[in-house]
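Lecture 7, part 2: worked example. A protein chain together with adenosine-5'-triphosphate.
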Amino acid sequence: MTRLSAITPSGHAHIGNHLGAVRRWACEGRPGDLYFVSDLHAMTVSYNPARLRALSRELLAVLVAAGIDADQVFVQSDLVRELGALSWVLECACSFGEAARMTQFKQKSDSQGMVRLGLLTYPVLMAADILLSGADEVPVGEDQTQHVELARSLARRFNTTYGEVFTVPTAVTPPTAARVMDLSDPGRKMSKSTQDAAGTVFVLDDPDLIRRKIRRAVTDGEARLEYRPDEQPGLANLLEILAACLGKSPREAAAAYRSYGEVKNAAAEAVIEELRPIRTRAMDLLRDPAELDRVRAHGAARATERGAHRLAAALRLSGVG
Ligand code: ATP
Ligand code: MG
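Predicted complex, written out as structure tokens:
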């Protein structure tokens, strides 16, 4: 069983990424699983190259600092030759209609000035990520299940047309993890790519900034101190964050406090303690570029090694290479 998960360097990692994804990868992951920083995916919309490079290093440091084994992490572009080659093979097994049908493409292309061809073809690159790794399970949210379906179709089509090479992956929906909402707007998911950072607690924020952001979190008009997500989404979000950090349920967390102020203070301190060791280790790595380069090169070599035979077989059976 191999699982593959990724995080895109579209911004700094936040507490939602940590509680909803990275923390689980570090503690529930199995030795064969792979985690990567999907920097090539960040190029499908307008971006700044220097920022992309810095964010990719930062996310790699955060993944390793969170406790993911160095054998299991890599930066996607370190495999750009392998992934580029496999993407081409898969593009030639994918119909235009299949790619154009992707809901995410339709949604994202509506909001872009120049629609990059890469935005259309990136689900094929994602198929290459999955099929090169040999992953059989891909944990994804709703928005990505269609892309995993495409990877399944391409794997099956290649296997039946040219010969058995690829494991046919399955999309798995992770058991409902904490879905952390924006502190300034609890109706919106906390996101790396949000422009306004006031409602986003980043993994590398210092403790004082975390306290300030949580103290300013939007709460609700009502004074009831209960976990009622529909009626009091601002308070519910704080209780969920607090509960996830303490390993309790939000209802248990609510019962321990008498005022919003107390909940905010407790949530701030719990988040600070949850993130402290990760922030410390990540900052150490970022201050030691040679060590981070070593970790990065090691992960890239492992991931390349794991996929090499699949790429070689796919090229050979395609009649090229
Ligand atoms: P972007 O705004 O670029 O989409 P993002 O913050 O949504 O960034 P992703 O790279 O899309 O982050 O997702 C990385 C992982 O973090 C995924 O497993 C995703 O489910 C999880 N995740 C993202 N946002 C949250 C959140 N607010 N709460 C819980 N989990 C989250
Ligand atoms: Mg996202």
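The chain is about 55% helix and 5% strand. Strands lie at 4-7, 34-37, 73-75, 137-139, 170-172. Keep this in mind for problem set question 3.
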